[in-house]
Amino acid sequence: MRRLKIIFEPYGRRVEVEEGESILEAARRASIGLRSECGGLGLCGRCRVIIDDLKAVSPPTEAEGRLLTSEELERGVRLACQTRIHGDLVINIPPESRVEAQRIEVKGLRRAVELEPMIRKLPLKLERPKLGDRRGDLERVLEALGGDVDVEWEAVKELPEALREGDWMVTAILWGSILIAVESGDTTENIYGLAVDIGTSKIVVQLVDLSTGEVISTGAVENPQAIHGEDIMARMTYAMESPDNLEELQRLAAEGVNEALKEALSKVDVDVASIYEAVVACNTAIHHLFLGLDPRHLAVSPFTPVVRRGFKARARDLGLNINRGAWVYTPPVVAGFVGGDAVADVIATGLHEAEELSLLIDVGTNTEVILGDGEELWASSCASGPAFEGAHIKDGMRAVRGAIERIWIDEDLEVRYETIGGVKPLGLCGSAVIDAVAEMLRRGILNPHGRLTAEGRRIKPGPPAEFIIAWSGETATGRDITLTERDVNEIQLAKAAIYTASKILMERMGVKPDDIERLYIAGAFGSYLNPENAKEIGMIPDVPSERIRVVGNTAVEGARLMLLSKRLRDEAERVAEEMKYVELSNDPNFLNLYPRALYLGRFT
Questions:
Q1: Which of 84, 299, 423, 587 has its CA 20 to 30 A from that of 479?
Q2: Dihedrals φ, ψ of 328, to 5°?
């Protein structure tokens, strides 16, 4: 019987199955929780998955024809219990089908700000119309508002009913000087906005009370665009194949935001119609895909974006389920590979205003590195790859229940670990892989080239050689969980990219690691990273621990601040314009630094 390779996303779990097995059986083999209330009988329709290759699976069954629409089947939606595997396959498990949700960082560093949002709510008490008074409903509202006000069509449409339902007491909602909605009665107490971070692998939203600036609820999902590739280049390639593909990626991004918002709204009593603006931070490629802009010129030198400055679009045009008249603002991008999320990082940390030399590293599939001293601000981006998410690691997985997240190795080479949820381990998430490499380096198990040099019962000779983290009797899979030399090489490639980007920016400013007075580690992965272990392998500069600050999701925090302050929105435009960008592949020292950065050891 032919053996086939299956990848389950968004977990990054890989498993081999025999041809003809069902997807549900393969998921169980991989110890992945997949809803199946009917026990796999094809009755409940809860085990929905999305596949990337319809030719690699069996045709739809009668049960699927009954439980799935033709549109869903065309999009690759299938029932795991009904679908048989006949070829190598990538299978995406959507949030509603998962038993366990991934741990996602939704909070970041908090910075105080004077409230000055673009959205204003003004209560208006108007005179009833009388015979001989030729003013229309809109003219009455505009006279009460005074000044030069533009009007959205959506606001005019709802105006007659709002005026009469409220007995001529209404609330006007303005975005800057644009009337975007009119509501009956005095609704000034209900005024909300949405701060959004669309990352390569995750989407995070914060529901913000614009009258107080407080986050009242949060939501997060995996980015559904991942069904078309774990990395940005794969998605851009897919988008460039046809306008329909670009449209699909735009729709998937919007659906992801809507799902995250749905989660946030489930925790509070807020109507979506009371959300009047969204600020969306993302890297340049995701920015283009979210706005439905052709990314083809981002993919080739000189990597030119369609638009650099901050941009606004109507929420309804993008498919976001908030107030029909609401606007969406995307912060300015710096360059082809440094986007509005990096600008949001700067706004959140105040890096552009700090007098101390500060380095910010926003760790992710694409890592942004920013260096500044209050006078100069330098930025670069590196493709650190999905290894930090557990991808391309033999026993790697995302940060979900059952993932080993912390590792310690004793002098006698015995291993201690912690799992998310305190349950039997399924595999290794990225933070554990960093821990393992650092600990193995300290104990002499690894040499600086990434080769296993020790001997003992935990060493499996290769190729590739493996170090056993958890024995088969301890794991939920019944198999040893190991770290291989090939896994270590993946981490070397990822950490070398970050090392090189940081080093080149320091050379441009004429400073050394010892000069860094503040090191910010940002991003979801960065929140769970052990800084000492990151220093040990040469991923971040070797600065004293008291200078390091783990700041969480600064992209979504920067989006929140721009939602609350027109001044900070203006600052963001200035930061993007003044920030100096380094394209690593064009730097004359890149080819010299990167090979050296592959060595495991402290950053000098």
A1: 84
A2: -120, 130
Kindly report, residue by residue over 296-350, the tens digit of the pLDDT: 888 887 888 899 999 999 999 999 999 989 999 999 999 878 899 999 999 999 8
Strands laid side by side in the 466-470 sheet: 459-460, 466-470, 481-484
Contact present, 540 and 522 (Cβ < 8 Å) = no
Same fold, 100-333 and 348-384+493-565+577-597: yes
Mean pLDDT for all residues in the chain: 87
**268 three-class SS:** coil
The answer to which of 30-34, 121-125, 501-505 has the lowest mean pLDDT is 30-34
Burial 289-311 (b: 16+ CB within 10 A, else e): bbbbbebebbeeeeeebbebebb
Contacts 24+ apart (CB under 8 A), 160-166: 163/126, 163/137
Residue from 396, 403, 445 nearest 422 by CA: 403
| Amino acid, single-letter form, for residue 319 | G
**And the tokens for 72?**
């869903």
Q: Per residue in 204-255, pLDDT tens?
A: 999 999 999 999 999 988 888 877 776 788 888 889 989 999 999 999 999 9
Architecture, CATH, for domain 348-384+493-565+577-597: 2-Layer Sandwich (3.30)
CATH number for 3-97: choose from 3.30.300.20, 3.40.50.300, 1.10.510.10, 3.10.20.30: 3.10.20.30
The three-state secondary structure class of 263 is helix
Q: How many CB atoms lie within 10 A of CB 373?
A: 17
Q: How are beta strands 377-383 and 366-372 bridged, if at all?
A: antiparallel
* Nearest partner of 552 among 525, 590, 523, judged by Cα: 523
The two tokens of residue 2 are 């032919």
Phi, psi of 3 (to 5 degrees): -95, 135
Q: Which residues contact 161 (CB under 8 A, 6 or more apart)?
A: 184
Name the CATH architecture for the domain at 100-333: 2-Layer Sandwich (3.30)
Give me the pLDDT at residue 243, please: 93
Alpha carbon distance 98, 94 (integer Å): 7
Mean pLDDT computed over 54-64: 92
Lowest mean pLDDT among 110-124, 274-288, 306-320: 110-124
Two tokens, residue 503: 């080093």
Map tokens 């280049």 to a residue. Answer: 233
Band of the pLDDT at 104, cuts 50, 70, 90? Answer: very low
Domains of the chain by residue range = 3-97, 100-333, 348-384+493-565+577-597, 387-490
Structure-block tokens of residue 507: 């050379």
CA-wise closest residue to 152 among 120, 176, 180: 180
pLDDT-derived band at 36, boundaries 50, 70, 90: low
What are residue 412's phi and psi, to 5 degrees? -90, 15
Cα separation, 495 vs 493, in Å, equals 6
Q: How many alpha carbons lie under 13 Å from residue 244 in its C-beta half-sphere?
A: 1
Q: Taken in order 136, 138, 142, 145, is the CA torsion positive or negative?
A: positive
Local confidence band at 109 (pLDDT 50, 70, 90 cut-offs): low
